[in-house]
Amino acid sequence: MKHRIVVLGAGYAGAVAAGRLAKRLHSDDTQITVVNADTEFVERVRMHQLATGQQLKRRTLTDIYAGTGVEVRQARVTAVDVDRKTVALVAENGADEIGYDTLVYALGSASADHGVPGVVEHAYDIAGRPSALRLRDRLDHLAAGGTVLVVGGGLTGLEAVTEIAEARPDLDVAIAARGGLGDWLNAKAQQHLRGVCDRLGITVHEHTDIARVEATGAVTADGRVLPAQVTVWTTGFAVHPIAAATTLTVAPTGQIVVDATMRSVSHPDVYAVGDAGLADGPGGKPLRMSCASGVPMAWQAADAIAARLTGRKIPKAPLRYFNQCISLGRRDGIIQYVTADDRAKPSLLTGRLAARYKEIVCTGAAWGIAHPTLHPVRRHHIAATRTETLTAIS
């Protein structure tokens, strides 16, 4: 009987994990299945581009995994039973259930409203393709002189507000940040960011908490009204609630708590990668939700699963940070070099060179996912002792 590995989610982390497992495990005794609600791999780091009318390359999962031995199931995950080792699904042809021997949980995250009234009813987000397309349609119908407010001064907010302002110079675009504009960057990066906002005509509201979103704008905690025909909400992400509904050990955020190999601390047959997993980085500092965290987590999980199944030594992936890549429209950007635990260093790149650097990073990440086994390593069989154990259990 083949060892069944089920990967839930095919974002950056899930897609990388599935491809890496296919390179390391022999298909004679393993069966790898990817479950994803969308038929395509979505470049989430480019959703601000999609929202402003740019066309992104489409990559279907069946094409990506053709010839790799990975099976693709298009379905939405509705529940996970980690005690029975089953996953409940809903697809076009109805409800279904699949079993697993090893589960890689990579369901990712969605935009977090943080309980702020009016966000769900009136705000737009770019956490996924459907919501980015919804924003694109709204912007397309916004006449010259229209007002747009981006709420959130993190990486997503900065990329969204500059992309919108560059693509639609006829609009009145503003950003509201809880802290100072880019205050986690070094002084030179902050100066460059302010210069870009000035050049693009972006109004900046710093140290501003939003208490309520309305159809005509946002109301701050101190009662000011920031007018906006379109409010874009980019204040962070929240994980899918499925994990918290199981007996898995989860953090208050709903993320699955994992060890250094991305293995659940409560259920050794479950691994969590990407935004869904809570893993410690350098100095015991939790890895932040990002592609920069998710891909190394996927490397580590896939390598650990393969090593444990084949009786080999578990390698260590570089669970650390090197830089933060921020696009500021299509012709500008900031590459902020950081310490292993994500603190800004004095060194950075800005301008067109930084924009090109960011583009190479994004293109390279997508290319690697689209060619999961282009540079294969030797595929190993499950260790004999492991196979005997599985046979006895079955």
TrEMBL record:
Highest taxon, organism lineage: Bacteria
Domain FAD/NAD(P)-binding: 4-302
GO molecular function: NAD(P)H dehydrogenase (quinone) activity
Family: Belongs to the NADH dehydrogenase family.
UniProt keyword list: FAD, Flavoprotein, Oxidoreductase
Annotated protein name in UniProt: NADH dehydrogenase FAD-containing subunit
Cofactors named for this entry: FAD
Lineage: Bacteria, Bacillati, Actinomycetota, Actinomycetes, Micromonosporales
Pfam family of the protein (one): Pyr_redox_2
Secretion signal, residue range per the UniProt entry: none
Regions annotated as coiled coil: none
Keyword hit for Oxidoreductase: yes
InterPro entries from the UniProt entry: FAD/NAD-bd_sf (IPR036188), FAD/NAD-binding_dom (IPR023753), NADH-Q_oxidoreductase (IPR051169)
Record GO biological process: aerobic electron transport chain
